[in-house]
What we know:
The chain folds into 2 domains: 11-114 and 384-463, no CATH class; 123-337, CATH 1.10.630.10. The chain has 18 helices and 8 strands. It starts with 10 loop residues before the first strand and ends in a 6-residue tail after the last helix. It is globular. Helix 12 crosses helix 15 (369-381). By secondary structure, the protein is α+β, with helices and mostly antiparallel strands.
Amino acid sequence: xxxxxxxxxxFRILGGDRSVNKRCLSDNVGSLALKNPxxxxxxxxxxxxxxxxxxxxxxxxKPFTDIPALDITLLQKRLHEQYGDILxxxxxxxxxxxxxxxxxxxxxxxxxxxxxxxxxxxWILRKYAERMGLEEGIGTVNGExxxxxxxxxxxxxxxxxxxxxxxxxxxxxxxxMVTRLKDQNSIDDTLLTLYNYAIENVGMLCFxxxxxxxxxxxxxxxxxxxxxxxxxxxxVDLRSSVHWYRYFRTPFYNKFEESLxxxxxxxxxxxxxxxxxxxxxxxxGESSLYTHCLVNNLLSGRKLTDEQLKSFxxxxxxxxxxxxxxxxxxxxxxxxxxxxxxxxxxxxxMSHSLTNGRPLTNEILLTMPYLKACIKESMRIQFPISGGYxxxxxxxxxxxxxxxxxxxxxxxxxxxxxxxxxxxADSDQYVPERWLRDNPDTDxxxxxxxxxxxxxxxxxxxxxxxxxx
Length: 469
């Protein structure tokens, strides 16, 4: 949501007896803070032993505090309460600057957004690729290698309208799922049921193939078990300060490698079969036979090699299963807790005759604002990304009156901001109505305005005679 592309402005600030290139936003032009920015070490945050590399990080968590091991979301909330809207703290051997106000986040994003993403190295995936002799996937690569894979695929995965072509086959899976649920008196494991649904759904989207997972079975269980372990392992790995498996194999790494290899053994035949069918149809002049399929549509672009496509689709498949199942579980959980909201959503669904077998189309979705509001509010209450969005300064910049050195990591603290009473009234309450545009009492869109249309605001700033600091 916060991955914003924009063209930053460049200014020159005089500091001491020498000229230093800095970058700042035009909003602050002429302020004393930018003429005399405060040094980086003056940013509020834990001092003393907490500023020591690695040691300072560990001291924030159990057994030294009541914060569970590496729970970055809870830590950022505690630090915000103590130090305010901009702070810094140790993360391993480096520093992270935490930003807890939309205006500060806007500054950082507009000044730092690079052409290519800059992300934390996912060491366990890098080591896996190295040991298996594979190229890294799109989820971990940076720079031009990322663009090589992303550019040919972005039309298929970013444009909302591109998903409309898949609606008929996804409707088939949804209808079968509802039929099965009607025949059952109860559900023993809701998350497992949603995982099985997600596998079947994403399988149709990627391969136009029914994997037979709605009824469960060993194949589905193997996929669910290993997907759950892989993503839990990734979260543990991203929160860890030391990665011993980089130097020698550990039981944790071996289990990760085994799980990922198992998933690839299950999915590789599906990808290969889909590619084979596509080439066979092409040679026989039947190119329209498998049009509703992600693999087919990516192949038709002819911008990815077969190996790149296989890696991308498998990564997307695995990510899609985990995110779909967990997001649905959060939405259903909130609706179960708030029966009045559930009833209101049910009335909206009934008004479109969707309970009578009418297929859900993009046109219908556009006229279902309360459904979207329930989804957004569920994800606001339980933000799906631990910690928020992290970017890095591409040069020395000034954010919130403080100097931030080049390459410093900055954390847009989304989980804390979206539950801040300053930006969301009754932020601890589940109120889908706050997302409805015709709701006169909501400040939701004002809170999010700092992240909207950044390029337009920059052009307006230039027209208003932006000055040199």
